[in-house]
Amino acid sequence: GNSVTQMEGPVTLSEEAFLTINCTYTATGYPSLFWYVQYPGEGLQLLLKATKADDKGSNKGFEATYRKETTSFHLEKGSVQVSDSAVYFCALIPIQAAGNKLTFGGGTRVLVKP
Amino acid sequence: SQTIHQWPATLVQPVGSPLSLECTVEGTSNPNLYWYRQAAGRGLQLLFYSVGIGQISSEVPQNLSASRPQDRQFILSSKKLLLSDSGFYLCAFSPGQGGTDTQYFGPGTRLTVL
């Protein structure tokens, strides 16, 4: 079946540090890949996406590259801010999925300290 | 533009009472609609999804039900709440009519069952 595995948190960083959150997936074919962010007490916001191998999604200084050979979609940001403190979810939609259902990873909590 | 609304934002209910959470979408026709639950400190669980009026797919057998009485309205219900129904409930949609498979989330309803 389809699955997403991401590193468990919490990840604690200082402001301006480099952030990496690892995400690997299992799926047939070429799924669409997503990163969502959830700020405290809020719903999920789409952060970025990629739909084919070697695509790079980017938004708000975050980047992730679709790596088919390693089945990975790691999230990176070069210099984090306190406002980046949130829970980050990696997710996929399998190719030709009924209802375009998302499969989520367990989420990684990130805490950025000033 | 496309928007999604959920209400209420918070709800405290006694065990055994009924539940009705509402979700509406604007700016798109025939969207796919989804209900998720997020228990405290845990990931997201897909409860129901719908690809059209009156079409509901249940992902997890439980104490809850869903209905879609109008194209852009999705309702989550229960006849008798259990303590284990507490959590953060998120509605999401993906645009219909050949649009992207990306899901967009509402602000969520925090339900506490006492």
Structure write-up:
The complex is a heterodimer of chains A (114) and B (114). Chain A has 114 residues and is mainly β. Chain A is built from no helices and 12 strands. In chain A, strands 2, 5, 6, 10, 11 and 12 form a 6-stranded mixed beta sheet that branches. In chain A, strands 3-9-8-7 form a 4-stranded antiparallel beta sheet, with no helix packed on it. In chain A, β5 and β6 form a beta hairpin. Chain B is mainly β. In chain B, the strands form 2 sheets. In chain B, strands 2, 4, 5, 6, 9, 10 and 11 form a 7-stranded mixed beta sheet that branches. Chains A and B meet through β5 and β6 of A and β5, β9 and β10 of B.
In short:
The complex is a heterodimer of chains A (114) and B (114). Chain A has 114 residues and is an all-beta fold.
Which descriptor suits the 3D outline of chain A?
globular
Chains forming the largest contact? A-B, 22 and 23 residues
| Separate helix tally of chain A | 0
Q: What is the residue-averaged pLDDT of chain A?
A: 93
Give the strand tally of chain B.
11
Strand content of chain A: over 45%
Compute the separation of the termini of chain A in Å: 41 Å
